[in-house]
Amino acid sequence: xxxxxxxxxxxxxxxxxxxxxxxxxxxxxxxxxxxxxxxxxxxxxxxxxxxxxxxxxxxxxxxxxxxxxxxxxxxxxxxxxxxxxxxxxxxxxxxxxxxxxxxxxxxxxxxxxxxxxxx
Length: 119
Fold this sequence. Notes:
Blueprint: H1 11-14, H2 19-30, H3 35-38, E1 43-48, H4 60-73, E2 77-82, H5 99-112, E3 117-118
Parallel strand pairs: 1-2, 1-3
């Protein structure tokens, strides 16, 4: 079920007519995005835990790019957000100490950014 652009969570960042939204739009343009790329489209957040020291996630760099292409093709606006990478072979004493922090980070990344849906 498609939502109207005004119903999207990201509308508060990009669609409102206030000074703060103007700032968000101008920063997006500074990053090379045209307004038609994100206006009225759902912003889809892609959390990526890729790292040079995480052998289990080495393919995530490519997968994120493939997911972005799919989001573009589906009419969304993909944004990649880096998340803490937990690497069992390299992290000492264990990644178990940090898994809850990664879960909290994922929640806060999605809550605090103009993301309409995670991917």
